[in-house]
Amino acid sequence: MTTIRQRRVGKATEAAEDQPSEEPNVKPDGKIPPDPPGGKLWNILSITVGGIVAISLGLLTSVYVATLHENDLWFSNIKEVEREISFRTECGLYYSYYKQMIQAASIQQGLHGLVYDNKTESVRTINILERMNVYQEVFLSILYRILPIQQYLEPVYFYIYTLFGLQAVYVIALYVTSWLLSGTWLSGLLAACWYITNRVDTTRVEFTIPLRENWALPFFAVQIAAITYLLRTHLQPAQERLTLVAVFMATFLFSLTWQFNQFMMLIQALALFILDCLDMLPTAKVTWLYIIQISGLLLVCVLQFFNSMILGSLLISFNVSVLIARIIQKNLKKGGLLSRLGKLILHILLVLCLTLLINKFIKKILNLESDEHIFKFLKAKFGFGATRDFDANLYLCEEAFGLLPLNTFSRLSSTLLFYVYGFVLFLLTVAAVIVAFRNLSGSNQVQLKEENEEYTVTLKPDVAYSLVHTVLFGCLALSTMRMKYLWTSHMCVFASFGLCSSEVWKLLLKCLHVHTSQRTQVIKYSVPIITLLYISFKFWPGIMDELSELREFYDPDTVELMNWIKSNTPNTAVFAGSMQLLAGVKLCTGRTLTNHPHYEDKNLRERTKQIYQIYAKRSPSEVYGILRSFGTDYVILEDSICYERRHSRGCRLRDLLDVANGHIMDGLGENEPDLKPSLYPRFCEEIKKNLPSYTMHFTRVFQNKTFHVYKLAKHK
């Protein structure tokens, strides 16, 4: 087991006024009056200073997480095998393809090895570029080969520095989004500071570097920034076209780098759909965003050799259904309140039915079952019946796929982020309800100018999108802890925007009947500055202590195992074991695997369940037959799984296997009435007794405190 042990040693000045978030005043003839010379100069100065601050904060964040990674592992001092072992589970699998491309005789041979791969899954040849999102590893390996940096920078450092560099892009994108929403770069500064001080809940890049989300989320943040700018009013045609290109590029890169892209963009499409139905976004721009999502995903589908899981995604079915439903219901946004509500309900039902029909049709044509485990998991998670499905229970029992822990909110509250977020969310939700009701009622009655400004300014299209975006991704994070990083980063943006927004403070002060423009301006700048000072004084010492704490990577048992495999087994040997460990075996030794952690394939899921019978109550001959059917030469048993105590009874891997096999579970506790005792003891325990029924099939060739390796006999 990997542990981290203690290493053994051999304030910003703000401009008084920034670029305003409101669009310039528009004359009755539709022309925008020019800014006075002094105002234009001040805007240029503000944008320049704000841009410098954004880039500086991005680079500082990149250096910060890189330093934490180095200090935590002493990465520069440990051996190559230890560096590779530090890329745990699926991280090691993804990095192995980068290493494979680097070590290939040529780029062409490296690509051929990925397209016709027979080492990731034994007795099968698979296309890695089709199955997995590893184009970033391919691009990075080619870049490393063609750049004259081999003498100065090791491949592993080129890889991790690229990921840490993307953190700079991430923070800059969050900064710019908050700036665009509020009109002041002070808001961006606050968003970046909150992102850094809440690092535990906003990113995990420093210890899961190759994880797909660490590649994808920076591009997702860039896409949100571009959408925020696109939804502004009075954009020139050239500006709009360039912004659409930026949205498309960011969407494409986000989709290319993460297998869960379709589910994240489906939530985004739902946000657009809700706002379009409530007449809070321009329909033409929403249509373009739907088309961009579809085209970006289809381009990725082509690059992934027409990956059927993409074609069968709910996102494509939903977006196509919305566009079709619009054609069918042309008068959706006309009529009074009751008429609009009736049409809206019918529209929602039509879109839902079309989505299900189109998706069912595509999956039937393509015989697609790759994502069925996700829907089984969701069905069981939200209480639509218990399941004995092994794959669904494997997800249900993982903490990362459980509900968001309550201590998350206490950490977010310690930086004032959650309090501010809740305050802004409440105000804007009330405003959104009022604006939505007014839009649906189609009221054209003359209202007080003050009230009109109050509601209209508060819910501009970009603010409305940000509100629904944060609500939907907040629901996702609350239901699935692993997805909190999509929410908490945007929480920083949303809270900082609200604290620096003239519209939000104006709305609050008018509700309290104490509004003046001077008071709004004073509060708009003083409250964020006080918040920044509080964060700085409270968390700066802790950050300095964190940066000075030196630790060291320590996992001697795994290092010993990997060195033994490299020295004592042939290069063609096939290894079976847990998904997490085998990813490291592939990376460190290059041996062939029976299974691996990239779980988005039905055949692999069935194969993994079969391999995991080594931890179930099965006879030695049955286990031997299963392993040999996958060409296994060696099997690795882990005590941490066989005698697992991390999970409670019912969620241990051996319990999931027992229930799936119809056997009662070990230990005190209830069992379902139809479960029966097994005729055989648990394989991983009994094999250690060296009984004849086991030794005729398995010979122990290696063991330490954590691992036991057995060689399979080759019977005729």
UniProtKB/TrEMBL annotation:
<feature type="region of interest" description="Disordered">
    <location>
        <begin position="1"/>
        <end position="34"/>
    </location>
</feature>
<comment type="similarity">
    <text>Belongs to the dpy-19 family.</text>
</comment>
<feature type="transmembrane region" description="Helical">
    <location>
        <begin position="312"/>
        <end position="329"/>
    </location>
</feature>
<protein>
    <submittedName>
        <fullName>D19L3 mannosyltransferase</fullName>
    </submittedName>
</protein>
<feature type="transmembrane region" description="Helical">
    <location>
        <begin position="217"/>
        <end position="235"/>
    </location>
</feature>
<keyword id="KW-0328">Glycosyltransferase</keyword>
<feature type="transmembrane region" description="Helical">
    <location>
        <begin position="242"/>
        <end position="258"/>
    </location>
</feature>
<keyword id="KW-1133">Transmembrane helix</keyword>
<dbReference type="GO" id="GO:0000030">
    <property type="term" value="F:mannosyltransferase activity"/>
</dbReference>
<feature type="transmembrane region" description="Helical">
    <location>
        <begin position="41"/>
        <end position="66"/>
    </location>
</feature>
<dbReference type="Pfam" id="PF10034">
    <property type="entry name" value="Dpy19"/>
</dbReference>
<feature type="transmembrane region" description="Helical">
    <location>
        <begin position="288"/>
        <end position="306"/>
    </location>
</feature>
<keyword id="KW-0812">Transmembrane</keyword>
<keyword id="KW-0808">Transferase</keyword>
<keyword id="KW-0472">Membrane</keyword>
<feature type="transmembrane region" description="Helical">
    <location>
        <begin position="487"/>
        <end position="509"/>
    </location>
</feature>
<dbReference type="InterPro" id="IPR018732">
    <property type="entry name" value="Dpy-19/Dpy-19-like"/>
</dbReference>
<feature type="transmembrane region" description="Helical">
    <location>
        <begin position="416"/>
        <end position="437"/>
    </location>
</feature>
<feature type="transmembrane region" description="Helical">
    <location>
        <begin position="521"/>
        <end position="540"/>
    </location>
</feature>
<dbReference type="GO" id="GO:0005637">
    <property type="term" value="C:nuclear inner membrane"/>
</dbReference>
<dbReference type="InterPro" id="IPR047465">
    <property type="entry name" value="Dpy19L3"/>
</dbReference>
<feature type="transmembrane region" description="Helical">
    <location>
        <begin position="156"/>
        <end position="174"/>
    </location>
</feature>
<feature type="compositionally biased region" description="Basic residues">
    <location>
        <begin position="1"/>
        <end position="10"/>
    </location>
</feature>
<feature type="transmembrane region" description="Helical">
    <location>
        <begin position="341"/>
        <end position="362"/>
    </location>
</feature>
